[in-house]
Amino acid sequence: xxxxxxxxxxxxLTPARRQQRTLRVVLVGAESTGKTTLTQDLVxxxxxxxxxxxxxxxxxxxxxAYTVAKIAENGLGLxxxxxxxSADWTSKDFGIIALEQQRLEDAAAAAGSPVLFCDTDAxxxxxxxxxxxxxxxxxxxxxxPHLPPRALYLLTDHRDVGFTQDGIRDGEQFRExxxxxxxxxxxxxxxxxxxxxxxxxxxxxxxxxxxDEMLDEQPPLAAG
Length: 224
What we know:
Blueprint: H1 15-21, E1 23-29, H2 35-47, E2 57-59, H3 62-73, H4 82-86, H5 91-109, E3 115-119, H6 122-133, H7 139-143, E4 152-156, H8 175-189, E5 193-196, H9 200-216
Helix pairs in contact: 1-5, 2-9, 5-6
């Protein structure tokens, strides 16, 4: 990073001001493509820089916890057939997930360092609603038609990570389609984005380069 520090005085900002200025880096992608691992690696890297970066936070995937609770509510086990479980989703579920995911993101943005890493977001919830309920179901989008600005989307490619079934995931056969849906949606929205490929070390190095590049572009806090 450059010697110029655009985030001098960050600690003195109010939570509301931090929420506005925090750069939100969102990791999205199909199932079992390394999103959570990469998110945690990035957080560990930036926390290790110390100073204001020691308080770098990340937002976990609320939809996962919601899925586990839904499975239990329906009297199913994590080892039951995922295809069967997919029929139990309703549009209301995705509206609930989108709202809570955004609430968690906003709370973290108000409390952490200048960069926040999000292991999925409400846009991804929209994509998953499409997967389970089709194009006609738009509850997540209708519930949150506008999202806070995203500084960068990192899309984890499915081709470099072997699929691991954890009792919740939908299935390996859907990963290519889901990856393409994310590519298309981010392009349509004009979001700053990068498809991330390679092994764990290569992915992390590339993402650090991209995030640092983005951080260096920021104006000083005094400039608003």
